[in-house]
Amino acid sequence: MIVPVTGVFAAVIGILLLVLSAQVVKFRLKYRKGLGVTDDRDFEAAVRAHANLIEYAPLGLIMLAIAELNGVASGLIYWTGMALVVGRILHAFGMINGRGGPHKARMIGILLTWLAILIAAVLLLWNVWQVYG
Questions:
Q1: Could you tell me the pTM of the whole model?
Q2: Keyword Transmembrane helix on this protein (predicted)?
Q3: What CATH code is carried by the domain that includes residue 37?
Q4: To 5 degrees, how large is the angle CA 33–CA 97–CA 43?
């Protein structure tokens, strides 16, 4: 079986991960710092934006893929995936441009991410209940 809808979202998140990774590498080369960060807030924000993507995106994508494999309507997968991807992009933008401090895009991004994970969880539970309930 294939998961074409989830595959598109995984590809976009993969590209975002590479962009954020390049930001971190840029700072690591600038400061000759292979591990940890310096007192530079921009460096720390870049590291945390990258790490936060890695903390949230895999679970969201796994949940979407399971839902897609279980036959959940592709429209529901699409809109949930859109919330996840837009949330991750906004969060990264807000984290970097807010230098790790408060930023509207960061706040909206994490809320969209949480919403996407919550919706995916509900879809999975609903699907299992429909099949086995």
A1: 0.95
A2: yes
A3: 1.20.120.550
A4: 5
